[in-house]
Amino acid sequence: MIPQEIIRQKRNGGVLSADEIQSFVAALATGELSEGQIGAFAMAVWFKGMSRDETVALTLAMARSGDMLTWLGIDRPIADKHSTGGVGDNVSLMLAPIAAACGLAVPMISGRGLGHTGGTLDKLESIPGYGITPDAARFRKVVKEVGCAIIGQTGSLAPADGTLYAVRDVTATVDSIPLITASILSKKLAAGLQTLVLDVKTGNGAFMADHEQAKLLAQSLVNVANGAGVKTSALITDMNQPLADAAGNVVEIWNCLDFLAGKKAGTRLEAVVLAFAAEMLVRSGVSASLNDGEAKARAALASGKAAEVFGRMVHMLGGPADLVEKPANYLVKAPVERPVLAGESGWLSACDARDVGMTVIDLGGGRRHPADKIDHRVGFSALLPLGTRVEKGDTIAIVGAADEAAAQKAAASIMASYRISGNEPSLPPVISGRI
Description:
Layout: H1 3-11, H2 18-29, H3 35-48, H4 52-63, E1 79-83, H5 91-101, E2 106-110, H6 120-124, H7 136-146, E3 148-152, H8 159-169, H9 177-190, E4 195-202, H10 211-227, E5 231-238, E6 247-248, H11 250-260, H12 268-283, H13 290-302, H14 305-316, E7 336-341, E8 346-351, H15 353-365, E9 379-381, E10 389-390, E11 395-401, H16 404-417, E12 418-421, E13 431-434
């Protein structure tokens, strides 16, 4: 395999064979390629695209560049969910234990915050002792005994993806649908999944702000995952405002515990969580219909079984045994809490969700550089949803900050992120498509 010939062929719009792609990825994984060659390949794909078969081959090659997990001895369907990222999107925290309580095995390998979007691992590290990098034996034990485990990616899973992504990040080739598809799915295939559901976000707080582009990405992900042998579907969901009424790290753990206790009924968050639970159960053959799947998920919540599963998962991964019962003993609140007050009366009609995420980062709740340390305490809670009628002086959010100056700055930023109008807004549905 001569790397420059493969690059030239793709640069000229040619179609690469599975063997050519496998050879290139193998060289990528072993460090045989220069950064220039990796960047040139990524740019060629960005400009010329890839066919479905090429993208399947790239995904499989990257998945096989490291360890491939197997789940022999676990008699439950192996299922997972992935989100393309958003603000106040803590769906995974509730969905994994709900799905496990309904009979699935969910080995969920999650990530940290990326750009303005929050990361599931950062949220879980708000829990004292929670270990996001257990060894393989512990990971398997938790999945087998509890039904779910949410952990971080190890260096042995799809290592070629990590190398390629690092170069894409600095060569303006992140937003290539074939490369996004292969990056997301290679890690999921390496996790040994049988079924997968995808949450593809659209709106001003999503990486794919345009609905049609989000639809194209969802279609690519579904086609390639199914082509690689994993039963997959996708929902397109709205990210024109934070999904939960909290955005940050520890505040989203509080939000998760409230959800599992039945305190978030009727919210956009509940609609998304239950829709994905139903989708997972149908895809895995546990439910015959989406209605039946949603009913099972609601029953797991109402009975307290999902909350029990979450508590057991936390404890088996090193966290406190009584987090669900006594969260105030462990979840540290921000030193300063300040209400954000409506400057006028009217309807909350629009929100720049990306700005909300960036304000969390400004508070210290996210990273500007990979080595940055996160302040898990900070963020926003009690965020009112769009479509809410407010009077001047009403609280539309609560800022949690390290000090008063940071709280004041964040409150001003949130006020600038929301628009209040005299007319009740027409809002997009929280779930706008299914593929």
